[in-house]
Amino acid sequence: MATSADQPSRPWKSYLLICNVGKRQNWGQLLRSATAFGVTEVFVVGAKKMKELALFGNQGTTLHATFEFFDTIAEAKAELEKRGITLCGVEIHPSSVPVQDVKWRGDTCFMLGNEGTGMTDKQIAACDHFTYIEQYTKATASLNVAIAGSIVLHHFAMVSGMPVAAREGQKFVTDEGRGKLDRYEHPTEYEKQVIDEKRKERAAKRQKAKES
């Protein structure tokens, strides 16, 4: 069972950092599980916009998370450090601790390695610690990234102090998440930047049209 070094005085938050994932369709499946286990904020390295993520299979869960985009891992890591968030690498690394034995200590962001090549040197250097999922046969060298992320995030959620979601019948109770109107009227800091950039782009196009 997952463990924690300290009893949370408030529910710990979990975050997801998407970087270097091999198959883009895994992102949507991973996000679906991540939001089920408490992730409400996703950091993305490399992609510039939501449409570049190809979040196939997310089942509408993008409405339950906010996204912040970074050009490099170093920039994302700096943001995590500023906010006091630990970065945990989900990877079969020499220093990895089995997920059931990790002593979680607070708000944590999870980054997974590429299915084929694993983590890059820059990803490894950015992580504060590592965890992995033990296997019991020689049938496969590693798990699908969405499956691995789901297992680790569930372990963390169990000791984070987050309340368990209510059930109704054979499903969990859901809400609609943040719609377009809510994102427009109450944008996050990143969403404000996106809105401002779009306004500047439209203004530039209008100016260009006038000059032509």
Automatic annotation (TrEMBL):
Mark out the compositionally biased spans (Basic residues): 201-212
Could you tell me the keywords of this UniProt record? Methyltransferase, Transferase
Q: Name one GO biological process term.
A: methylation
Q: Can you give the residue ranges of the tRNA/rRNA methyltransferase SpoU type domain? A: 15-154
Whether Iron counts among this entry's keywords is no
Q: Which InterPro entries match?
A: Alpha/beta_knot_MTases (IPR029028), rRNA_Methyltransferase (IPR051259), SpoU_MeTrfase (IPR001537), tRNA_m1G_MTases_N (IPR029026)
- Region annotated Disordered, chain positions: 175-212
Q: Where is the composition biased (Basic and acidic residues)?
A: 175-200
A GO molecular function term, named singly, is:
RNA binding
- Name of the featured protein: tRNA/rRNA methyltransferase SpoU type domain-containing protein
- Native source organism of the sequence: Perkinsus chesapeaki (Clam parasite)
